[in-house]
Recover the amino acids of this structure.
């Protein structure tokens, strides 16, 4: 069988490098603040969707509560800064650690559940944490946390006078998540995970401890999503449970991967590159309610027409037939 | 805080009254889940639509929600049948996650369209008995809750008779027990799926309609019922409508007594913890798979 690199013409790599250089250089030349903010959202949700895809893609487990980890990350930054006046960069240690810990504790019982039961259990767990945060004074309960605004400071991770700094942090994070996905995919660890996804009993029979593998990847996935929450907190500068942990955020996280292709490396990025600009456009033209209604319709259409996402559908329709001809 | 017997009984009663509504909503959900194997995320949104229909028929025609329920039932049966025919029938063989995602998308769609047209204003139906209540033995019975409770009981009995006496009801239960075997003996399972989704949707919508005399209508009204229905369905054993009817009462009472004895904010998290515990420690629920096997 041909490997993917043999299938794709060299031009594709040139195109990718070109796009990357363009995203890195063009903002310096000058882009409107609006476009920088749209790109920032694109990077953020591509990043968390890549994180979600680590678990969903490599193990086939659909977690419907990733907003929980997103919120944990956001709140870890918010509490460190607002309550203790510690640099929010420290949240990159604290947030992912708490998120990974929660993934371990909740994964241990829930990974025994099959398909939709697992999805429902993760959904309900995120709801429990959401409701607890709504009542928890330490994190500001339902009022949430408002940041003290600092114009521009690397130490305090706030760049209100120039969003370009957020932009580049977002870009670096996306590249990091892509690299991580690629590394795992080409490692023995990744191969074993995919073996579990494709045939769990078979994987068990050759001595793979399937539960341990799922726990490890779910902890990595949770940690990545938490880091996305930190970036969100640092540029939104206001947190409350409903805006960081609700089902809307879960949809934000899962939709790019579902659209682009669960289990592919570039799928979540492609999905976010389609969804985020589209949703910004819709929000400005027809308002956020109809935008969310259209998002619902997109969900349904993905399942009906491209259940395996854009990347896989393109591979099946256009690239695989070429292989047969050869 | 001292616990007074009459106040405790009062809160248990409140739990029974609201629990009967949970029962009805959950019976619809468990029929769909057990028969079609589809986790219907849109159940709460469809219930909310039922509440709006009751509200608008009251608003424009002055119809009492109990009467409009008679119209809402066939309307939502048809709506559910159409949703199955145009949406779910195509993915009945797909993975359970795909099915969950499609009903999740449907929920987002319905809720936000409703939000767009009718905003998040809270609407309440006022009927001739809205502020009526009775005293008995130190307890207070307010008419909207009592009337909705008896309406729910009637619906529950009707559902039981339908599923045990009518040929369609029997076919639904047969399909739930064993899809292939049902097909072999000549049951058109595709049509049965449509009937099941129609029936489940109609039950949710009617349950929504009969509580509009005391429960405010807004685009989020169905959410709490949806989550609690998940709890009830798993507690009462998946696919077992009798289990759902009993489970609804149990969850209603547990919820209201938690609110009284401990803390109102703890009601919902506690129900969710119960849900997780059941999923993990007794996935068969309280009543086993009596209906399925």
């Amino acid at each position: 069988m041909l490997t993917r690199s043999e299938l794709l013409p060299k031009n594709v790599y040139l195109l990718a490098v070109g796009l990357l250089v363009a995203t890195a250089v063009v903002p310096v030349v000058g882009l409107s603040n609006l476009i920088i903010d749209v790109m920032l959202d694109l990077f953020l949700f591509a990043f968390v969707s890549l994180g979600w895809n680590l678990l969903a893609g490599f193990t086939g487990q659909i977690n419907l509560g990733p907003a929980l980890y997103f919120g944990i990350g956001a709140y870890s930054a918010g509490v460190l800064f607002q309550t203790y006046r510690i640099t929010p960069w420290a949240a990159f240690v604290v947030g992912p650690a708490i998120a990974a810990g929660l993934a371990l504790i909740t994964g241990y019982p829930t990974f025994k559940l099959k398909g939709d039961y697992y999805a429902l259990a993760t959904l309900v767990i995120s709801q429990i944490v959401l409701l607890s945060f709504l009542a928890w004074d330490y994190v500001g309960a339902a009022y949430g946390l408002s940041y003290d605004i600092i114009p521009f400071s690397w130490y305090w991770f706030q760049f209100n006078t120039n969003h370009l700094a957020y932009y580049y942090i977002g870009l670096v994070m996306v590249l990091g998540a892509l690299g991580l996905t690629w590394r795992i995919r080409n490692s023995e660890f990744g191969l074993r995970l995919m073996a579990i996804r494709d045939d769990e009993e078979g994987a068990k029979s050759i001595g793979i401890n399937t539960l341990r593998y799922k726990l490890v990847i779910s902890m990595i996935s949770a940690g990545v999503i938490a880091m996305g929450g930190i970036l969100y907190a640092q540029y939104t500068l206001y947190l409350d449970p409903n805006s960081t942990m609700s089902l809307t955020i879960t949809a934000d996280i899962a939709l790019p991967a579902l659209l682009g292709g669960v289990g592919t490396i570039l799928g979540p990025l492609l999905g976010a590159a389609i969804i985020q600009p589209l949703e910004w456009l819709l929000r400005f033209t027809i308002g956020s309610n109809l935008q969310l209604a259209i998002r619902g319709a997109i969900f349904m259409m993905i399942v009906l027409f491209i259940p395996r996402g854009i990347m896989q559908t393109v591979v099946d329709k256009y690239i695989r037939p070429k292989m047969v001809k050869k | 805080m001292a616990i007074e017997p009459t106040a405790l009984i009062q809160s248990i009663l409140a739990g029974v009254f609201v629990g009967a509504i949970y029962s009805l909503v959950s019976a619809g959900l468990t029929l769909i889940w057990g028969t079609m194997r589809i986790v219907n995320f849109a159940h709460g949104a469809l219930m909310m639509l039922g509440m709006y229909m009751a509200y608008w028929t009251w608003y424009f025609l002055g119809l009492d929600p109990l009467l409009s329920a008679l119209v809402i039932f066939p309307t939502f049966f048809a709506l559910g049948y159409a949703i199955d025919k145009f949406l779910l029938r195509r993915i009945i063989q797909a993975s359970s996650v795909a099915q969950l995602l499609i009903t999740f998308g449907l929920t987002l769609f319905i809720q936000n369209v409703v939000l767009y047209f009718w905003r998040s204003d809270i609407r309440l139906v006022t009927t001739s008995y809205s502020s009526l209540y009775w005293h008995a033995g130190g307890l207070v019975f307010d008419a909207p809750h009592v009337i909705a409770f008896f309406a729910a009981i009637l619906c529950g009995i009707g559902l039981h008779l339908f599923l045990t006496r009518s040929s369609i009801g029997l076919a639904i239960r047969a399909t739930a027990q064993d899809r292939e075997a049902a097909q072999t003996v000549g049951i058109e399972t595709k049509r049965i799926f449509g009937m099941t989704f129609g029936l489940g949707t109609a039950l949710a919508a009617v349950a929504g309609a009969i509580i509009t005399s005391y429960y405010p209508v807004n685009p989020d009204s169905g959410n709490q019922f949806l989550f609690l229905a998940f709890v009830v369905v798993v507690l009462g054993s998946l696919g077992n409508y009798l289990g759902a009817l009993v489970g609804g009462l149990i969850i209603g009472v547990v919820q209201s007594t938690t609110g009284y004895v401990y803390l109102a904010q703890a009601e919902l998290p506690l129900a969710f913890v119960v849900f997780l515990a059941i999923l993990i420690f007794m996935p068969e629920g309280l009543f086993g798979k009596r209906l399925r096997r």
Residues 47 and 174 of chain A are 5 Å apart (CA to CA).
